[in-house]
Specification:
The protein has 254 residues and is of the alpha/beta class. The protein has one domain: 2-enoyl-CoA Hydratase, Chain A, domain 1. It contains twelve helices and nine strands. The strands form two sheets. It has a six-stranded mixed sheet, sandwiched between helices. It has a three-stranded mixed sheet with strand order 5-7-8. Helix 6 crosses helix 11. The longest helix is centred in the C-terminal third of the chain and has 20 residues. The chain is globular.
């Protein structure tokens, strides 16, 4: 498998980070976590970049965590650094104080859904579908979604997403506050880039300060939710009666 996992394009004050593992619907493996985190850190350090857009190549935004790596973690067969890439990426995203946008098409599964809770402006292709399959897989939620989704969507919609593992279409995502707007099929990346370029043209100190102010009250809640989720994950996998790996195995076999 190639080491090429993302594409980066910089233009007009905007960095486009495109997930590029289309053969696995842009699932995140350890290398892609590392590469995306590095690309985001680079955008923070580059004064020419005033906004960042996330998207996926091929037919999906991202199908989330690579299930084979996740199953190895569940079986205790992963290396000592297993999970560190996921945590590192979230650390970067939570602290990211430049405008962050996402152009979502196809499927956003698992992290492809929960990551959007950390994105400032989410635009969806009108045929895009989101899903948080954690209950079905037998694992706790991730990426502070146990707090972010109820806070953003309201309790009932979040319960449908997290407890019932329901598919969320573009109209429902916009109506529930997960996304800013939906776009005609085939236009979502162009519309997202145009919005990012517009934002990037504003005085950068102002946009960063606005985001910092918006995040001040939310960040401690996100940090606390991540800690609770990681504790729940460790507790569940330490209990042989919980058997969370069974859901992962079933998902791999489908």
């Amino acid at each position: 498998m190639s080491d090429h996992r993302i594409d980066i394009e910089d233009a007009d004050g905007v960095r486009l980070i495109a997930f590029d593992r289309p053969e696995v619907r842009n699932a995140f493996d350890a290398g892609m976590y590392r590469d995306v985190a590095a690309a985001l850190r680079g955008a923070l350090d580059d004064d020419a970049i005033q906004a960042v857009v996330l998207t996926g190549r091929g037919k999906a935004f991202t199908s989330g965590q690579d299930l084979r790596e996740m199953a190895a973690i569940a079986a205790g067969e992963a290396g000592p650094d297993a999970g560190s890439g996921f945590r590192d990426l979230l650390d970067v995203v939570v602290a990211f104080d430049k405008p962050l946008l996402a152009a979502v098409h196809g499927v956003g599964m698992g992290l492809g859904f929960t990551l959007l809770g950390h994105v400032d402006l989410v635009l969806l292709d009108e045929q895009a579908l989101l899903r948080a399959p954690f209950a079905e897989m037998g694992v706790p939620p991730e990426a502070a979604s146990s707090w972010l989704l109820p806070e953003r969507m309201g309790w009932q919609q979040a319960a449908g997403a997290l407890l019932a593992s329901e598919w969320i279409d573009a109209d429902r995502a916009v109506a529930s506050g997960v996304a800013y707007r939906s776009c005609p099929t085939g236009t979502v990346l162009d519309e997202t880039m145009a919005l990012a370029v517009r934002i990037a043209a504003f005085p950068p100190r102002a946009t960063r300060e606005i985001k910092r102010l918006m995040m001040t009250a939310r960040r401690p809640q996100i940090v606390a939710a991540r800690e609770r989720e990681e504790s729940a994950f460790a507790s569940l996998f330490a209990d042989p009666d919980a058997n969370p790996g069974a859901g992962l195995t079933a998902s791999l076999e489908r």
